[in-house]
Every structure is written in structure tokens, then in C-alpha cells.
């Protein structure tokens, strides 16, 4: 992906997704709606794990998936229709069994502003029962090897 190298990322080497804010992404206030930001976080999360080999076919073969258990979003500045944005993400934690975390940063390269910072946590679940389940070996290997240090990771409850 051709991303502006002048972006001040919170962590090194993000997986990125380029976004152009569409008119239908905006709300009555004229800026991107908070629901749209959540969709962008989900879009990049799937693209990132699939790029690491954690494909939907692997999910189906193992019968397991990582379900979002919490998302924290800080809206720092608004995005408007026509804005060109770059969303970066990193895997920032895996407990070796059930839980993982990921961090996000949404930047508008034209002015260098960070518009959003977010963190999500995930728990492995059995796709049939929807109950917590130990992450399969394949997930554990991918999540462990792709996790970066220094980010906002898992916290002890």
C-alpha cells in the first residue's frame, strides 16, 4: 500500500487501509458517523488477520473465531466527506490461550492529524456454541508472532 511516510504512527509498521470518506458516511453534523468508524475498524481487522493467514476457511476448519469483547474509541477530530484517510492497526497482545488485543490509529495525511485512536479486545469462541474456547494452535501461532510490543494490550480484569 502506498502510504505517506510522513505519518507519525503510534507504533512501528502498521497494517494500513486507505479510506475515502463518502457522503453517505456522514451524519447530520456533516462529519463521519461514529458507526462508520466502527465499520472501518472491523474492515481493517479482517483484512489484517487474513493477510497473516488467519483466513475465514481457517476459522471454519477450526470451528473457532475471535469475537470482539470491548472497543474503546477516542474521537479526536472529525472526518468529512471527501477526506482521504489512512487507518493503521497492530496486534498488541495475546495471552496464549483465549484473549487478544489490537490498537488502531486513523490519520488524515493532508494535515497529519490523528482523528481516532482505538483499542479492541477479543476472546476466542466456539462458532457453534458461541462460548469461550481455547484458541487453536494455528490462531495462537499467528497472534503471537504478529503481536507488537509497546502498544495498548490486554489488561488484567
Automatic annotation (TrEMBL):
Keyword Oxidoreductase applies: no
Keywords of the record: Hydrolase
Classification via CDD domains: 4HBT (cd00586)
Pfam families: 4HBT_2 (PF13279)
Molecular functions (GO terms): fatty acyl-CoA hydrolase activity
Keyword Transcription (UniProt): no
Name this protein carries in UniProt: Thioesterase superfamily protein
Originating species: Marinobacter santoriniensis NKSG1
Amino acid at each position: 500500500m502506498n502510504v505517506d511516510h510522513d505519518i507519525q504512527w503510534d507504533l512501528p509498521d502498521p497494517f494500513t487501509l486507505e479510506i475515502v470518506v463518502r457522503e453517505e458516511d456522514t451524519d447530520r453534523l456533516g462529519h463521519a458517523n461514529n458507526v462508520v468508524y466502527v465499520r472501518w475498524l472491523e474492515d481493517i481487522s479482517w483484512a489484517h488477520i487474513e493477510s497473516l493467514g488467519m483466513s475465514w476457511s481457517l476459522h471454519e476448519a477450526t470451528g473457532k473465531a475471535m469475537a470482539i469483547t470491548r472497543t474503546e474509541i477516542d474521537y479526536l477530530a472529525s472526518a468529512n466527506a471527501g477526506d482521504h484517510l489512512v487507518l493503521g492497526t497492530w496486534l498488541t497482545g495475546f495471552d496464549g490461550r483465549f484473549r487478544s488485543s489490537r490498537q488502531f490509529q486513523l490519520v488524515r495525511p493532508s494535515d497529519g492529524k490523528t482523528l481516532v485512536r482505538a483499542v479492541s479486545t477479543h476472546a476466542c469462541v466456539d462458532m457453534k456454541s458461541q462460548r469461550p474456547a481455547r484458541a487453536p494452535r494455528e490462531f495462537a501461532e499467528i497472534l503471537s508472532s504478529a503481536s507488537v510490543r509497546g502498544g495498548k494490550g490486554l489488561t488484567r480484569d
